[in-house]
């Protein structure tokens, strides 16, 4: 009978790349989901601040998006006589090399409109 000492090592070498791809894919999805929730929250808070008369709408959005590094250049604000509109576009890059090269950079976009009180 032949020795099977290296069999488990070879099997592990075959499975390891798939396991790492799955783990990093889960991490990337979590980062994207966190960014989407944060951008949505920052947009709502900024639109609410604009609807009640706060003049620093972009600052409110940036402060509420600080966990993802939201900058003032990613926030657009417009106001009419009846409603305030806040639009945020945030790029998310993947850390997984294979998925990152296939997908590239995704944009998380949020547009919130609130009536001015």
Task: Give a written overview of the molecule.
This protein is an alpha+beta fold and 117 residues long. The chain has one domain (7-115). It has three helices and three strands, in the order ααββαβ. The protein has helices at 7-51, 57-64, 97-103, and strands spanning 75-79, 83-93, 105-115. It has a three-stranded antiparallel beta sheet with strand order 1-2-3, with helices on one face. Helix 1 (7-51) packs antiparallel against helix 2.
Provide the descriptors you would attach to this structure in a database record.
117 residues, alpha+beta, three-stranded antiparallel beta sheet, 3 strands, 23% strand, rod-shaped
Distance between the termini: 84 Å
Q: What is the strand tally? A: 3
Q: How many independent structural domains?
A: 1
Q: Which structural class should the secondary elements be placed in?
A: alpha+beta
Averaged pLDDT: 91
Low-confidence stretches: none
The Cα radius of gyration reads 22 Å
Number of helices: 3
Task: Describe how the helices and strands are arranged.
Elements: H1 7-51, H2 57-64, E1 75-79, E2 83-93, H3 97-103, E3 105-115
Antiparallel strand pairs: 1-2, 2-3
Helix pairs in contact: 1-2
Quick summary:
With 117 residues, this protein is of the alpha+beta class.
């Amino acid at each position: 009978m032949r020795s099977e000492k290296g069999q488990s090592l070879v099997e592990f070498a075959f499975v390891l790349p798939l396991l790492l791809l799955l783990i990093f894919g889960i991490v990337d999805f979590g980062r994207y989901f966190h960014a989407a929730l944060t951008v949505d929250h920052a947009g709502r808070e900024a639109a609410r601040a604009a609807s009640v008369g706060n003049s620093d709408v972009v600052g409110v959005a940036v402060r509420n998006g600080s966990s993802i590094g939201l900058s003032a250049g990613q926030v657009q604000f417009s106001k009419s006589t009846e409603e305030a509109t806040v639009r945020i576009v945030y790029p998310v890059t993947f850390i997984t090399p294979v998925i990152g090269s296939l997908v590239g950079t995704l944009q998380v976009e949020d547009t919130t409109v609130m009536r001015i009180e």
